[in-house]
Amino acid sequence: MACLSIAFILTGIACGGSSEGPEPNRELPPGSPTFGHGRALIDTRDDSVLLDVEIAQTDEQRAFGLMKRERLAEDSGMVFLFFEEHSGGFWMKDTLIPLSIAFFDIDGDIVRILDMEPCEADPCEIYDPGTGYYGALEVNQGAFDDWGVQEGDHIEITQTDPTE
């Protein structure tokens, strides 16, 4: 049943074999888990945005996230998937770059967008959307504004390369 709840997100390898779109961002810091890869298509009110994304869907992947990364390619990000509705927030412990995060619901609709700042020492701020969500997309801080992405816009995730 859990797999059905996020079927809208993982449309499978067969759908994502295109070579078009952004180049992968695959520079992993030491100690990082391996992530799946895919594409995120964000439909805004005026346009659409295609991103290359790493996909974090295990506890280990979600806990490590973008920690220790010195940069994130302009048209890339990381998607965090949950197999049931999730609540609570994200923190930026050991994350070196400022990020923006879009939380989305079971239908892929963005329910909250927040800007997050790097944090080196405890306690770190918790960035809580204040509502339940099934996934989140992190990108360089300010990118959602640059692309015209707003709450209510739609995200569709296609997995092109499962976790290696």
What would you say this structure looks like, in words?
The chain has helices at 2-5, 59-64, 143-147; strands spanning 36-43, 48-56, 76-86, 90-91, 99-104, 110-116, 126-127, 133-140, 154-161. With 164 residues, the protein is mainly beta. It has one domain (2-12, 33-161): Sandwich (Jelly Rolls), CATH 2.60.120. The chain has a 7-stranded mixed β-sheet. A two-stranded antiparallel sheet has the order 4-7. The protein starts with a helix and ends with a strand. The relative contact order is 0.27. Residues 1-25 have low confidence and may be disordered.
Brief sketch in words of this structure:
The chain is built from 3 helices and 9 strands.
What topology emerges from the helices and strands here?
Layout: H1 2-5, E1 36-43, E2 48-56, H2 59-64, E3 76-86, E4 90-91, E5 99-104, E6 110-116, E7 126-127, E8 133-140, H3 143-147, E9 154-161
Parallel strand pairs: 2-3
Antiparallel strand pairs: 1-2, 1-9, 3-8, 4-7, 5-6, 5-8
Query: What Rg, in angstroms, do the CA atoms define?
Result: 15 Å
Sketch the major β-sheet: 7 strands, mixed
Number of helices: 3
Q: Give the total of domains.
A: 1
Oligomer: single chain
| CATH uppermost class | Mainly Beta
CATH topology: Jelly Rolls
Q: Could you report the average pLDDT, rounded to the nearest whole number?
A: 86
Strand order of the largest sheet: 6-5-8-3-2-1-9
